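Q: What would this chain look like folded?
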Amino acid sequence: MGLKAMLADQSELTIVASAPTVPELLATGSELDLVILDLRLADGSSPKTNVEQLRAVGVEALVFTSAEDPYLVRLAAKAGVLGVLRKSEPTATVIAAITAAANGEQVVTTEWAAAIDGDPGLQDVGLSPRQRDVLALYASGEKAARVASLTGLAPHTVNDYLGRIRAKYAEAGRPARTKTDLYKRAVEDGWLPIPTRDQPK
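A: My prediction, written as structure tokens:
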């Protein structure tokens, strides 16, 4: 409703359809130039999945969000959205961003850049994709043996990776001596989602 109100006086921008999920939106059969996508939808779907579904049918997306979860913002940004726009932005900024995105232009914002590059206030530790996988699994609560089973790595390799990961964080001035520390680092870097109240950490 807020978005419709913002665009009410914009003759070149028309909301042709809305839906609680991407599949339901696509099922309307509406001709879409751009989808304005929230990060949290009714079906609990991943932003990455939603963006991929839209791009598969030739439709680009602009994320319009409160941006409270850097993990979800990063998923959407890396899936290839045209930009990430905060709902708190002034109406004029929102209209300009939607207009640009509808014309296929990239909408470069601080949130979008930070999601792509990581939090500029946190020094990148340069983890490899495999190390990130191990970190995410281990920090989310799995034991090293279970991580080995899930990744197909040998247990000693997992332990070696964990040692290297801890060393990299220590070198970056972000020590991660305990499993809880590793969890915090993984959340900070967007490799794990921020916990909700029903998922305490």
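The chain has ten helices and three strands.
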